[in-house]
């Protein structure tokens, strides 16, 4: 990348970025909140779901902790994982179009790939099992692996340590939420690319610090594997 740092590690989000969501995550949140007695159609439910939408991309348990005390947050998180499992059983999971090819192109060029998520480890494993992606990437991380989830920089910095980055500017971060963008900027990554296949729109991604906004992760290889000035990708 002329005039920019060469990318050696790509930290890429799961749901909404490489995995088509289709409302599955939000439905699981709504069902988890209802399981704690906050039912749809009430003002309390509307407030809780507004908080969920505002916090998309963050650690799921931390989102529940922002709504409930610790015992109820743990119960809600368990209900979320069960609901998500059931939704996957009923509807399956599929990659965002072009995501698998993008992972192949990036790794084929010698760039190491880490998949990041706000899911707990159990749900992360369920997603990777369902898609058969364990051998498609070099590393997978969830908040439990890093200490804190998004919007903190810990996930990206943990990837940098585990994959042996010599400079955080050699990292690209890609995701669909404002929290993904904040994580990337706070970690020092030189490329922080938002995609329009998930939770947040272009304006929200740019406001959170995106250096680029792409139609989807399918466009990420063209950004990180060749010259691509920032202004040309907004």
Automatic annotation (TrEMBL):
It comes from the Bacteria. Signal peptide: none annotated. Coiled coil: none annotated. Gene3D superfamilies: HAD superfamily/HAD-like. GO terms for cellular component: cytosol. Keywords: Hydrolase. GO terms for molecular function: phosphoglycolate phosphatase activity. GO terms for biological process: DNA repair. It holds the Pfam family Hydrolase. InterPro entries: HAD-like_hydrolase_sf, HAD-like_sf, HAD-SF_hydro_IA, HAD_sf. Transmembrane segments: none annotated. NCBIfam families: HAD-SF-IA-v1. This is Putative haloacid dehalogenase-like hydrolase.
């Amino acid at each position: 990348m002329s005039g920019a740092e060469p990318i050696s590690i790509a930290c890429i989000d799961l749901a909404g970025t490489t995995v088509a969501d289709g409302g599955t995550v939000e439905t699981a949140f709504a069902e988890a909140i209802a399981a704690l007695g906050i039912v749809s159609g009430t003002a309390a439910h509307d407030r809780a779901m507004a908080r969920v939408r505002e916090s998309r991309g963050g650690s799921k348990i931390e989102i529940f902790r922002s709504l409930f005390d610790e015992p109820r947050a743990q119960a809600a998180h368990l209900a979320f994982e069960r609901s998500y499992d059931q939704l996957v059983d009923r509807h399956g999971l599929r990659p965002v179009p072009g995501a698998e090819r993008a992972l192949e192109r990036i790794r084929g060029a010698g760039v190491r790939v880490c998949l990041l998520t706000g899911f707990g480890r159990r749900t992360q494993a369920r997603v990777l099992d369902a898609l058969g992606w364990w051998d498609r990437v070099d590393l997978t991380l969830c908040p439990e692996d890093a200490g804190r989830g998004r919007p903190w920089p810990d996930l990206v910095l943990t990837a940098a340590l585990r994959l042996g980055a010599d400079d955080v500017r050699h990292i690209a971060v890609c995701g669909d939420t404002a929290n993904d963008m904040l994580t990337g900027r706070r970690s020092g990554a030189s490329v922080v690319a938002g995609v329009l296949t998930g939770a947040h729109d272009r304006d929200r991604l740019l406001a959170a610090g995106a250096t680029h906004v792409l139609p989807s992760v399918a466009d990420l290889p063209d950004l990180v594997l060749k010259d691509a000035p920032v202004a040309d990708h907004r």
